[in-house]
Amino acid sequence: MIGRSPGDYSDFNKRRKMISEKTNSVPLWIVLVSLAYALLTLVGVATLVFSPERVLEGVDVKAKGILFLTNIWATRNLAVGAVLAYSALKRSAPMLLLSYVFLLVTLIGDVVNGIVQNEQTFAISSGIVAVLAMLVAFLIRRRMD
After folding, report:
1. DSSP string, 6-61
2. What is the mean pLDDT of the chain?
């Protein structure tokens, strides 16, 4: 840095701004898809909390431990929905990518649980949502490069 004053960081600031713009520029459609995912997740949370018998057909929700497990499931989904909504509203590509990885882990767990419990509808629907989430995550990652 010959010929510059010790406090001159203009090149550094320009590069930092370019990197920030590139990694934080998330298209509006990805933000809207992410908010839709978050909204659906939060609707699922409300259903689990206020009407668990609709989600758990054929299960006695009054049995010992069932409401506890339902609340754990709702809490997990609340975390996923809140993180996804927050990162979408911040329009941060790295945050959104991490949120989608978190969502994918939970969806893959749902697919496995659906298969183990012989609930094909649950496993297939979770698998479809997981593939769509994986596609969005791939597009976000590609945009960051």
Report:
1. TT--HHHHHHHHHHHHHHH---HHHHHHHHHHHHHHHHHHHHHHH-HHHHSTTS-T
2. 86
Beta carbons of 49 and 81 less than 8 angstroms apart: no
What residue type is assigned to position 19 of the chain? Answer: I
Position 138 scores a pLDDT of 93
* Long-range pairs, 108-111, Cβ under 8 A, ≥24: none
Q: Give the span between the Cα atoms of 138 and 144, in whole angstroms.
A: 10
pLDDT digit string (tens) for 129-143? 999 999 999 999 988
CA dist 66 and 75 (Å) reads: 14
Q: How far is CA 80 from the centre of its chain?
A: 5
Average pLDDT over every residue of 56-83: 88
pLDDT surpasses 80 at 79: yes
Two structure tokens written together for 36: 């839709």
